[in-house]
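Consortium newsletter contribution from the modelling node. Members have asked for a concrete example of what our holo predictions look like. Here is one, prepared for the pyridoxal-5'-phosphate complex that several groups have been discussing at recent meetings.
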Amino acid sequence: MTDANKVMELSKEYLWLPFTQMKDYEKDPLIIEEGEGIKLKDIYGKEYYDGYSSLWVNVHGHRKQEIDDAVKEQLDRIAHSTLLGATNVPATLLAERLIQISPPNLQRVFYSDSGAEAIEIALKMAFQYWYNNGNEKKTKFVTFSDGYHGDTVGAISVGAVDLFHKIYNPLMFNSFKVPFPDTYRHPSDDPQEVMRESLSALKETLDKHHEEIAGLIMESKIQGAGGMKIMTDGFFKEVENLCRTYGILLIVDEVATGFGRTGKMFAVEHEEIRPDIMTVAKGITGGYLPIAATITSEEVHQAFYDDYTKLKTLFHGHSYTGNQLGCAAALANLDLFEKENIVASVEQKASVVQEALKPVAEQAGVGDVRQLGLMCGIELSKDKITKEPFPFEERMAYHTTLTMRKNGMLTRPLGDTVIFMPPLAAEESDLKAMVGIIEKSIEETITD
Ligand SMILES: *Cc1c(COP(=O)(O)O)cnc(C)c1O
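And here is the predicted structure:
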């Protein structure tokens, strides 16, 4: 048995947690010790719904028998060997499975260990694709405002969430930023007009600069960390068309949206997009282990394929890339997608959540409720009509999530938006109970 109070003291003394002000942590510490299904248990035995799928990664719940078994079986063979110049069995089998479920033009899998790394690799690939083809001018990227692609310096250079990224500006390379068609925070009520405005800004940028642009990077159908902002239907396709017209690579970031989260295996399927490069991570192992992949068309790969002395190799790799335990978990995860028909079930569950969220949208302090599949954001606003936000200092979304914790559910805020991302395996009754906690906690937090 672990001594709970002892671990608590150690956590305050030695840890520095990601995206966390440690002064907040000290006041409201939390240490998870166990998980079962869609619930987590802390060191004092209190249970919580995993309302954020352990930061958007969990699919089938915790301690899923099939994935547990797959990892244990792999452990009896080997835990890890390198992917530099060699491969292993599960990484190879997983590559085939990923290609089978990816858009039909994608053909090659380059592994890494996190979403941000998959993005770094995509950026280097896109740049070097042009370089290897004799074009040294294409060195820049286009991205959308409020885009999020991870926290490493390359990934933040194509990111545009001011709260997270602005301070690091002096470290970044420059990217062209185009306004995302944000229908809530826009003076126009007409989504078509908002979309046209964004597309014309994109067209103008490409018109002027396409000769120096290697690729455009975007999240798939919905922006996640930027606040759960959904693209109006048709926008994604128009962006793809513009990339083709201007001869730049389309990099689609499926790190948050991949593996059933939006009701499709990949969110590109909503508009039959064919990315040149696609990044996946989060849900790939069902939330078990850190595996990511950058998946490309054969045309992109061919630009790197030549005699070694031509120096067209992609000079990139990480120590734990292609880890066997992670790939074994991922294979078991994909088996479960088939066996339990996960993607189809998301649509039904999403409609249950949509219905349950209706009273939340009417609550005082709630400005907008956005949802695609089982990806939901509840944006708090002081004034429903004027959309005036709560003062920054009040940290209303943060305090709402603390109330939710007290009421038995864990999640995180993104600025003024409370995130709800339940594991895909959550039952309908659990989904309703979780939304009930959201409703109750908003009411308790926003009293006056
Ligand atoms: C989480 C996320 C990333 C970064 O993935 P990590 O594994 O946290 O590095 C990149 N892109 C999107 C869209 C994400 O949601």
